[in-house]
């Protein structure tokens, strides 16, 4: 089982990590912690995986659940602040790409939970049918939601 887990970990870690990054507005350390929590759950429940869906879909569902649970727990404690404290030197050194990325994460963070899940899975290049399976929506509904979410993000970033 450990070889199987190692293979699963190697194939899916970067995707899980990126999905977690989207939930925590680009906080690298927090995303790594959440990704670790995901793979602990994968390890604990790998024997119970029933193969009703692909292993990737199953792992994404675990990732979404872990991230949502984290967000819900932290909303009760306090609102997470994503404002970075920077000195003048740091501000001058930041490039436009990083600024746009942070702005996009901030816009994604403003979305409703379901919209956030969907757009983060879209950014992972998951097929819309698989996103529908993960989220429990119809494929047609996902198509409409993706279009609306992209419009919201375009307005937010502009």
Structure notes:
- This protein is mainly α and 158 residues long.
- The protein has one domain (2-157): Butyryl-CoA Dehydrogenase, subunit A, domain 3.
- Helices cover 77% and strands 0% of the residues.
- It contains eight helices and no strands.
- Helix 7 packs across helix 8 (139-157).
- The chain is globular.
- The chain starts with a helix and ends with a helix.
* H and E order: HHHHHHHH
Terminal CA distance reads 48 Å
Main sheet makeup: none
Number of domains: 1
- What characteristic shape results from the CA principal axes? globular
Oligomer: single chain
Q: What is the CATH domain class?
A: Mainly Alpha
Provide the CATH topology: Butyryl-CoA Dehydrogenase, subunit A, domain 3
By helix and strand content, what is the structural category? Answer: mainly alpha
The radius of gyration is 17 Å
Helical coverage, percent range: over 70%
Q: Provide the β-strand percentage band.
A: under 5%
Provide the CATH superfamily.
PhyR, sigma-like (SL) domain
Index terms:
77% helix, Butyryl-CoA Dehydrogenase, subunit A, domain 3, 158 residues, mainly alpha, single chain
Gist?
This protein is mainly α and about 160 residues long. The chain has eight helices and no strands.
Secondary structure elements and their pairing?
Blueprint: H1 2-23, H2 28-45, H3 55-77, H4 88-93, H5 96-110, H6 113-123, H7 128-135, H8 139-157
Helix pairs in contact: 1-2, 1-3, 1-6, 2-3, 3-7, 6-8, 7-8
